[in-house]
Write a structure and sequence with these properties.
This protein is an alpha+beta fold. It is built from 2 helices and 8 strands, in the order ααββββββββ. This is Competence protein ComGD.
Length: about 150
Protein backbone atom coordinates (compact mmCIF):
# COMPACT_ATOMS: atom_id res chain seq x y z
CA UNK A 1 0.00 0.00 0.00
CA UNK A 2 0.97 3.55 -0.52
CA UNK A 3 2.18 5.06 2.76
CA UNK A 4 1.33 8.63 1.74
CA UNK A 5 -2.38 7.85 1.73
CA UNK A 6 -2.27 6.93 5.44
CA UNK A 7 0.15 9.66 6.52
CA UNK A 8 -1.63 12.39 8.48
CA UNK A 9 -0.28 15.47 10.15
CA UNK A 10 -1.48 15.62 13.76
CA UNK A 11 -0.39 16.84 17.15
CA UNK A 12 1.49 14.54 19.43
CA UNK A 13 0.23 13.80 22.91
CA UNK A 14 2.83 16.05 24.54
CA UNK A 15 1.90 18.96 22.24
CA UNK A 16 -1.75 18.56 23.22
CA UNK A 17 -0.86 18.58 26.93
CA UNK A 18 1.22 21.75 26.52
CA UNK A 19 -1.60 23.48 24.62
CA UNK A 20 -4.16 22.49 27.29
CA UNK A 21 -1.88 23.76 30.06
CA UNK A 22 -1.53 27.13 28.28
CA UNK A 23 -5.32 27.43 27.97
CA UNK A 24 -5.74 26.46 31.63
CA UNK A 25 -3.32 29.17 32.75
CA UNK A 26 -5.13 31.77 30.63
CA UNK A 27 -8.49 30.74 32.11
CA UNK A 28 -7.08 31.00 35.64
CA UNK A 29 -6.47 34.71 35.00
CA UNK A 30 -9.64 35.38 33.02
CA UNK A 31 -12.30 33.91 35.33
CA UNK A 32 -11.46 36.02 38.44
CA UNK A 33 -11.35 39.17 36.29
CA UNK A 34 -14.77 38.33 34.90
CA UNK A 35 -16.18 37.77 38.41
CA UNK A 36 -14.83 41.14 39.64
CA UNK A 37 -16.35 42.81 36.60
CA UNK A 38 -19.69 41.17 37.38
CA UNK A 39 -19.53 42.30 41.04
CA UNK A 40 -18.76 45.90 39.99
CA UNK A 41 -21.61 45.85 37.47
CA UNK A 42 -24.01 44.45 40.06
CA UNK A 43 -23.02 47.13 42.58
CA UNK A 44 -23.40 49.99 40.12
CA UNK A 45 -26.76 48.62 38.94
CA UNK A 46 -28.05 48.25 42.51
CA UNK A 47 -26.94 51.73 43.56
CA UNK A 48 -28.35 53.30 40.39
CA UNK A 49 -31.69 51.57 40.97
CA UNK A 50 -31.81 52.90 44.54
CA UNK A 51 -31.08 56.43 43.30
CA UNK A 52 -33.84 56.19 40.71
CA UNK A 53 -36.31 54.84 43.28
CA UNK A 54 -35.56 57.72 45.67
CA UNK A 55 -36.03 60.17 42.79
CA UNK A 56 -39.36 58.51 41.97
CA UNK A 57 -40.60 58.87 45.56
CA UNK A 58 -39.55 62.50 45.56
CA UNK A 59 -41.35 63.23 42.28
CA UNK A 60 -44.50 61.35 43.24
CA UNK A 61 -44.63 63.26 46.53
CA UNK A 62 -44.21 66.61 44.77
CA UNK A 63 -46.69 65.90 41.95
CA UNK A 64 -49.33 63.55 43.37
CA UNK A 65 -49.60 63.57 47.16
CA UNK A 66 -47.35 63.54 50.23
CA UNK A 67 -48.18 60.03 51.41
CA UNK A 68 -45.52 58.12 49.45
CA UNK A 69 -42.66 56.57 51.37
CA UNK A 70 -39.68 54.34 50.76
CA UNK A 71 -39.64 51.73 53.53
CA UNK A 72 -36.44 49.81 54.31
CA UNK A 73 -36.43 46.34 55.91
CA UNK A 74 -32.96 45.45 57.21
CA UNK A 75 -33.63 41.83 58.12
CA UNK A 76 -35.17 40.98 54.75
CA UNK A 77 -32.69 43.03 52.73
CA UNK A 78 -35.53 44.72 50.86
CA UNK A 79 -37.15 48.09 50.41
CA UNK A 80 -40.53 49.07 49.06
CA UNK A 81 -42.32 52.05 47.63
CA UNK A 82 -45.50 52.39 49.65
CA UNK A 83 -48.55 54.60 49.12
CA UNK A 84 -49.92 55.28 52.60
CA UNK A 85 -52.98 57.07 51.29
CA UNK A 86 -54.16 54.05 49.27
CA UNK A 87 -52.53 51.54 51.66
CA UNK A 88 -50.82 49.86 48.75
CA UNK A 89 -47.30 48.64 48.00
CA UNK A 90 -46.29 49.88 44.55
CA UNK A 91 -43.16 47.74 44.28
CA UNK A 92 -40.64 45.86 46.41
CA UNK A 93 -36.96 45.55 45.58
CA UNK A 94 -34.59 42.95 47.02
CA UNK A 95 -30.88 43.53 47.41
CA UNK A 96 -28.60 41.10 45.56
CA UNK A 97 -27.67 37.84 47.22
CA UNK A 98 -25.02 38.18 49.98
CA UNK A 99 -25.74 41.91 50.36
CA UNK A 100 -26.86 43.47 53.62
CA UNK A 101 -28.38 46.70 54.83
CA UNK A 102 -27.86 48.63 58.05
CA UNK A 103 -29.79 51.76 58.93
CA UNK A 104 -27.54 53.88 61.11
CA UNK A 105 -29.25 57.26 61.55
CA UNK A 106 -31.79 56.93 58.75
CA UNK A 107 -35.35 56.11 59.81
CA UNK A 108 -36.80 52.96 58.27
CA UNK A 109 -39.19 55.10 56.23
CA UNK A 110 -37.93 57.87 53.92
CA UNK A 111 -40.47 60.55 53.06
CA UNK A 112 -40.38 63.90 51.32
CA UNK A 113 -42.51 67.01 51.71
CA UNK A 114 -44.36 68.73 48.84
CA UNK A 115 -41.30 70.84 48.04
CA UNK A 116 -39.19 67.72 47.53
CA UNK A 117 -37.15 68.03 50.72
CA UNK A 118 -36.50 64.97 52.85
CA UNK A 119 -38.35 64.95 56.17
CA UNK A 120 -35.65 63.21 58.23
CA UNK A 121 -32.09 63.04 56.95
CA UNK A 122 -29.76 60.21 57.86
CA UNK A 123 -27.33 57.55 56.72
CA UNK A 124 -27.42 53.85 55.99
CA UNK A 125 -24.89 51.27 54.83
CA UNK A 126 -25.19 48.73 52.05
CA UNK A 127 -22.75 45.87 52.53
CA UNK A 128 -21.69 44.06 49.37
CA UNK A 129 -19.52 40.93 49.65
CA UNK A 130 -16.25 42.91 49.31
CA UNK A 131 -17.26 46.58 49.72
CA UNK A 132 -19.44 48.73 51.93
CA UNK A 133 -21.32 51.73 50.61
CA UNK A 134 -22.39 54.56 52.86
CA UNK A 135 -25.65 56.08 51.62
CA UNK A 136 -26.25 59.63 52.88
CA UNK A 137 -29.67 61.25 52.67
CA UNK A 138 -28.81 64.92 53.32
CA UNK A 139 -31.12 67.72 54.42
CA UNK A 140 -32.64 69.75 51.62
CA UNK A 141 -33.86 68.77 48.21
CA UNK A 142 -30.85 66.70 47.16
CA UNK A 143 -31.66 63.01 47.02
CA UNK A 144 -28.76 60.89 48.22
CA UNK A 145 -25.00 60.56 48.08
CA UNK A 146 -23.08 57.29 47.82
CA UNK A 147 -19.67 56.99 49.48
CA UNK A 148 -17.55 53.89 49.04
CA UNK A 149 -15.88 52.83 52.26
Amino acid sequence: MNRQLYSQKAYTFSEMIIALMCWSILLLFFIPMQYRTYENFQASRTLQQLKEDVLLVQHLTMNDHIYYSLNFYQQKGTYELYDTKKRKTIFTRKLPEKWGMKLTTLPSSVRFNQKGMIRKAGTMHLMAPKKTYKIVFPFGSSRLRVEES
